[in-house]
Amino acid sequence: MRRGFLLDGKAKPKGAAPPPAARLKPTPLEVDTNAKASQATSVPTPLKAMDRGSDREYSVMPSGVIENAGRPDGYITGKFTIHEDTPGVDVPDAEFMFTSMPPGAPDAVSCIMTGWLKRHLLSQPGFPKPMDIPEKPAYRIDNIPGKGKGMIATRKIKVGDVVSTERPLKVDPAAIPIPLDFPAHFSDMQMHQAFLYEKGVITEKIVKRMQPERQAAYMSLANTHLHDGSSPIMGITRTNAFGLENMCEKDGAANDRASWYSGVWDHQSRINHSCSPNVVRTWDTASFSQQMRASRDIEEGEEITVTYTNLTWTYERRKGDLKPYEVDCDCKSCSQVDHTRSDKRRTSFANPPPLRPPMGPVPSGTAPDAWIAPALKMIRLMEAEGLECIPQYPKVLHQIVNAYAFMADERALIYARKLYQAKRVRMEESSSNGFYEKLCELDTLKQTLGMAWGLMRLAARGPPGMVMPMVFCG
Question: What global pTM score does this model have?
Answer without folding.
Answer: 0.84
